[in-house]
From TrEMBL:
This is Aldehyde dehydrogenase 8 family member A1. Belongs to the aldehyde dehydrogenase family. Keywords: NAD. InterPro entries: Ald_DH/histidinol_DH, Ald_DH_C, Ald_DH_N, Aldehyde_DH_dom. It comes from Myotis myotis (Greater mouse-eared bat). The keyword NAD applies.
């Protein structure tokens, strides 16, 4: 696990874990549960352990916001419809993961998720020739391959009368 970018970033990520604990969630492992052991040369860095949170309410900021740190919330669900509704209830939609050996389920769920990227049985595997970008409050437009041309191009019109 690499370091977070700054002390402020580390404290922000830690604040989510503190909020989750205050809301009654369980921290299964990671921050505040396990000891972080770093070699001397890394002890001045902004490291934290990957952290797993359970027993957390859907309304928690940990479930509604993009934490951008090594934190995941694991919550049970009873049906595809329930989990899709819960996933789509947040204002963000950069990426999602679907874990299943049922290819039909993967296609059904991925199609209904309001997310710019859907990884299946993996995470953060990126083919640079495919579009990258989110939905809702997670960005506008796509970048990558042909989808970058318009995104990174500023059109200018010049008219000359002579």
């Amino acid at each position: 696990m690499g370091a977070l970018i700054s002390k402020a970033h580390l404290e922000k990520v830690r604040s989510y874990i503190k909020k989750a604990r205050a809301e009654g969630a369980q921290i299964l492992c990671g921050e505040g549960v396990d000891k972080l052991s770093l070699p001397p040369r890394n002890q001045g860095g902004y490291f934290m352990l990957p952290t797993v949170i359970t027993d957390i309410k859907d309304e928690s900021c940990c479930m509604k916001e993009e934490i951008f740190g090594p934190v995941t919330c694991v919550v049970p669900f009873d049906s595809e419809e329930e989990v899709i509704k819960r996933a789509n209830s947040v204002k963000y939609g950069l990426a999602a993961t679907v874990w299943s050996s049922n290819v039909g389920r993967v296609h059904r769920v991925a199609k209904k998720l309001q997310s710019g990227l859907v990884w299946t049985n993996c995470w953060l595997i990126r083919e640079l020739n495919l579009p990258f970008g989110g939905m809702k409050s997670s960005g506008v437009g796509r970048e990558g391959a042909k989808d970058s041309y318009e995104f990174f191009t500023e059109v200018k019109t010049i008219t000359i009368k002579h």
